[in-house]
Amino acid sequence: MRDEQWLEAWPLDTLFFRGGEPMEAGETHETGAPIFPPIPDTIIGALRTAILSQKKIPLGRVRSIGADEDLDPENLPLWGTPKRSGFRVAGPLLRVNEVALFPAPANWFCTQGEDEKRLFVKEARPEDGPYGVKTERQKFLWLHKPEEEMEPLNGLWVTTEALNNKNEFELEIVEQLGDLAAGKPQAVPSKLLFAQEERVGIARELPSRTVRRGHLYSTRHIRLAEGVSLLLRLDKRLCPSHLAPEGIFQLGGEGRIVRYRLLDVPPSLPVGKGRWLAISPIEQERLNSAGLLSVSYAAGKPMRIAGWDLREAFHKPVKAYFPAGAAFFSKKDPGLCELISF
Predict the structure, then answer these.
(1) Per-residue pLDDT, 34
(2) N or C: which end of the chain has fewer CB within 10 A?
(3) What is the pTM of this model?
(4) E strands in 88-227
């Protein structure tokens, strides 16, 4: 994407991302596992709110215009309408020691050999199935002569050099972040990059803001490890026309503060053709519109996620998303910001 920009961001504390779990008393007191990476709409909403704040535009102005009416087509054409953003976001990727890390592709399977620091990886590719096996797709994904007990690379993040591999290869398992280096095909366990923290919260009565009786909640937040930052991909050039090259914004639940800056040099991306990796959760409807649900693909279990409409002060409709790491085989560029070629 010629017009794309990348932002690097550092949370000041923890981050809180959740799906559509209820938080009403009597239903549950547990909000479920955090969704990380978060869906793009979460980040888009945070950046659009940051634009309003930096441009000193009150939220009341957004509420005063129609859902399909542009806020300021002359000065802020990329902000869009209350209903539709004029830009898209993908990620976040993770960054350590100036090395970008990507979610491991869902079509990769591995086994561990005698060396515990290395993984032997095989890639499931679209091939004709065994004789007598019929599928809905012309090409189904198969592992050629798989090893015993091969497992998907769940919970691993991989380097650019790792994504440049195909078919059969080996990856080095990073045991501490100081061992991560550019130019090496490496895999990093999630536990080295971020951790989940249990938090207990209360509900408040409106408008008195006193504690609501019987409303005690347990939430799980994401805390990045020291030296780990987020990389956000913008499909349009927001900086500096809409967004300052450096600043802060609130991201996710509870309005957690994030510091950001525009990257002068974008991260190194893999060089590939015919394979597309989702670097953030991607809406099923967008995949369907791009024709990617009719090609060979591998993905984790779809997620159903809602959100909060700041303008309407009400829940957004629940949508289905494929998780980050979904891999699609297509020779045609689908033109989706959430996908990179590998």
Answers:
(1) 78
(2) N
(3) 0.88
(4) 89-96, 99-103, 108-112, 118-123, 125-127, 140-142, 151-152, 156-159, 168-173, 186-189, 194-204, 211-224
